[in-house]
Design goal:
about 190 residues, five-stranded mixed β-sheet, 5 strands, alpha/beta, Phosphatidylinositol Transfer Protein Sec14p
């Protein structure tokens, strides 16, 4: 899996999204419902398992699990949340089996407060399944790295995460996220497109 192949997928997803909105004018009052409907339409054009595998994956030969929100937001909707969570748990299990612990790297580029509300259910379900205090994942989590960190993420994290996990969270501002992601994937500067 490479970050550049995800850029190609992201472009394809963007094209389907643009097509959806050219056929359905943007709804000002029912935005959340329409965004979910758009995600359902977009996801119907792709193999769901492939989309999920390009959203949450283990960076080759590492204990680093990468979560790509820009891809996630294009197709994720409530009827597939459980599949996404199960896939993520399988990746974490694989990582724990190979390395005994794991890191999570989350690209939150373009994540907003309205997105936090729209995806509140999957965030809570994932937290309950993977980060609550009585899970193996909680014990085996080494660090969480958050790229393109929204300014309100600190307040959100304090509400969602156990106090013992907060010191494991490293955040990167928009200004340095590109550089940090390039380093993570060992990509020369001119080749990245996130």
């Amino acid at each position: 899996m490479s970050n550049s192949s995800n850029s190609n997928l992201l472009q394809q997803l963007e094209n389907y999204k643009k097509n959806y909105y050219s056929e359905n004018s943007k709804n000002i009052f029912l935005k959340k419902k329409q965004k979910i409907e758009c995600a359902q339409v977009v996801s119907s054009q792709f193999n769901i398992e492939e989309l999920i595998s390009k959203t949450v994956y283990l960076i080759k030969d590492t204990n680093k699990v990468y979560i790509d929100y820009p891809i996630f937001k294009m197709y994720a909707h409530p009827s597939i949340y459980q599949k996404i969570i199960e896939h993520t748990q399988n990746i974490l299990d694989e990582c724990i089996h190979k390395y005994d612990y794991f890191e999570v790297h989350v690209n939150l580029k373009s994540f907003t407060i309205s997105a936090a509300e729209r995806y509140r259910q999957i965030i809570q379900d994932f937290y309950d399944a993977a980060l609550s205090k009585n899970t193996v994942y909680y014990v085996k989590l080494y660090k969480i790295y958050v790229y393109y960190t929204p300014s309100a993420i600190g307040d959100i994290a304090k509400l969602l995460l156990q106090p013992e996990i907060l010191p494991k969270v490293n955040t990167y501002s928009k200004d340095i996220s590109d550089s940090k992601i390039r380093d993570l994937f060992h990509i020369p500067e001119e080749k990245i497109s996130v």
